[in-house]
Each structure stands twice: as C-alpha cells, then as structure tokens.
Amino acid sequence: MLTEQDYKDGQILLIDKPLQWTSFQVVNKLRWLIRKQFNIKKLKVGHAGTLDPLASGLLIICTGKFTKRIQEFQGQAKEYTGTIMLGATTPSYDLETEIDQTFSTDHISNESIQKVTTQFTGEIEQYPPIFSALKKDGKRLYEYAREGETVEVSSRKITIDTFEITRIELPEVDFRVVCSKGTYIRSLAHDFGKALDSGAHLTVLRRTKIGSFSVEDATTVQSFENQLQVKIETT
Q1: What tens digit of pLDDT does each residue of 54-90 get?
Q2: Which region holds residue 88: left if phi is over 0, alpha if psi is between -120 and 50, else beta?
C-alpha cells in the first residue's frame, strides 16, 4: 500500500473516468480521499488531459511532485473509441445539446464511409466546437454559446494517425481514432457528417490510451476509494 510520502513524492494514478463526472470532480475526489486517509492539509493533485462529462475512459492523475510531469503526458498521442450518429447535428456536436438539424442518409454506403475517413488522416485543420472550454478574450467558448453569442473560432493544426471504422449499422458508425493533443473528436464527428453530404454528432466517446498508458490498467474511482478504506480499517 502507498504511504503519505509516496503520494507527496509523486504517483501516477490511472483512473477510468465514469460518465457524467467532470475531470476536475475526479481530481477533487481523489485529493479528498488521500488527504482524509493521511490527515494531510495540502496535496497537489492534477489530471493530464480533460475528458468531457459525456466521455468515459482513461484519465491520468498525478500527485505531489509528479504534477510537474502533467504537460509531458498531455503531449502524448491519445486513442479513442466511440460512436457517430449520422443524419443529425447538434450545436455541441454531441449529446449535451438537442438535435437542431436532420439530414438524409439514404445516399451513404459502407464504401463511402470508409473512403471519407482518408480525408481525416495525417495533419489537418480542425475547428474546435463552440461548446468547448477554450478561452477567447478571457471567456470560455461554451459561455458565449450558452448566451447565444456568435464568436469567431480559429482553426488549429492537429494530427490524426489512425481513423478506423469498426462497425457500420446506419445511422450509427463505430470508430477508433489515434490522434495528437488538441484533437476534438466531437469536431471530427461533425466534419465527418459534412464530408458525407449529411450531418453527424458524437453519441459515445471513450478514451482508451494516452501514450503507453491503457484504460485496461486503470481503476475506477469507487475501487480506489475501497482500497483506501481497506487500509484504514486494517491499520
């Protein structure tokens, strides 16, 4: 079992973030659990890359001195799996907001779906979703969006190494993506629908890898809490 000094010297905790939790909620929960266990007043805890509340999967949590390594982990390639729903768009590009437009999918074939993926591999220009935490003039983009304000969002260069279609059952398409830091899978889903002369939004998203770290080696928040409780009860 890890000691108080272990957490202060620095630990990398792999957490499988549950749906509906923000990344900061996970950080705050783990910090509170560790501080409670060892009766620590202060402990640095941070995460290496935000996951949206509607996404699940791998979250790297750093404690103590290892919080200095957060940028190192943030810069590593990430792998995601998920589901794109063709034939409809939402303002947030996912399920956070209601469908605002619908489109035909009758013209879409398995072949056209596979072909379009090639447009989104390599270095590409991508526009972040207006419903994102990026800041413009000191204000989050999603704050502008929720107030109904229109703001100009600049594109950014990202790299998609792999865009693999793993299941097609129209209107649903499952995928696996390996991409660089700064990639928005929601934007990829939106642009994918446009490229098919239709519309699309993201309905499922799971982060499976960050660099060499895999969600298969991660633990749930509940399991982490249970392990700490076992230690408390046995000491």
Answers
A1: 999 999 999 999 999 999 999 999 999 999 999 999 9
A2: beta
Mean pLDDT of 148-163: 87
Catalytic residue among 6, 9, 16, 52: 52
**Residue found under tokens 């107030």:** 147
Is there a catalytic annotation at residue 52?
yes
Chain Cα centroid distance, residue 169: 24
CA of 155: how far to CAs of 94, 134, 138, in Å? Answer: 19, 12, 18
CB 24 within 8 A of CB 44: no
CA dihedral 186, 188, 190, 195 (to 10 degrees): -170
Does the pTM of the predicted model rise above 0.90? yes
How far apart are alpha carbons 142 and 84 in whole angstroms? 22
Q: How far is CA 191 from the centre of its chain?
A: 18
